Amino acid sequence: MRNSAVFNRYSIISGALFFITLLTAHSVSSAENVNRYRSHYKAALLADAESGRILHHDRMHQKIYPASLVKMMVALIALEELESGRISLQDSVKVSRWASKIGGHQVYLKQGEIFKFRELMEATVIASANDASVAVAEHVLGSDKVFI
To answer: Rounded CA gap, 90 and 36, in Å?
Structure first.
């Protein structure tokens, strides 16, 4: 009976140590991941949405001008034009040379390709594609320069 009690005690202690080891390994792994991916971002802020408590930050006061802001404006103006009826999701849009050469995040549109406006909007909003965004801007207002 005494051996059974000792065995149970060792089992509980072993289980607790194993659990602590898992937690410690995870926290070390998380810290390593943050350092490994640090070069992929300019600044970071992670907060709990309900409490507002900041969970992690790195250079959180650094000013950054996100490129996606322009894409959001393109999408907003395009949606307003769709709502007004001036353009349609079924419109055919021919990709310009400028849109095909824009660079950055893209879906690699080729000059002269023809897409439905809906497809280009999806690429702009979902894939954050610069080339699709330029094609949308050109279709909506005749030029992407209006958005700059």
So the answer is: 44
> Quick one: tokens of 113?
């390709």
**Is pLDDT above 80 for 22?**
no
Q: For the chain, what is the total number of helices (H) and then of strands (E)?
A: 5, 4
Bridging pattern class, strands 92-94 and 114-116: antiparallel
What is residue 63's three-state secondary structure? coil
* pLDDT of 129 higher than 70: yes
Do the beta carbons of residue 72 and residue 96 sit within 8 Å? no
Q: What's the pTM?
A: 0.56
Question: What digits encode the pLDDT tens for the residues 26-35?
Answer: 544 455 555 5
How far is the C-alpha of 25 from the C-alpha of 17, rounded, in Å? 12
Answer yes or no: is pLDDT of 144 > 70.
no
E-assigned strand segments in the chain: 44-47, 54-58, 92-94, 114-116
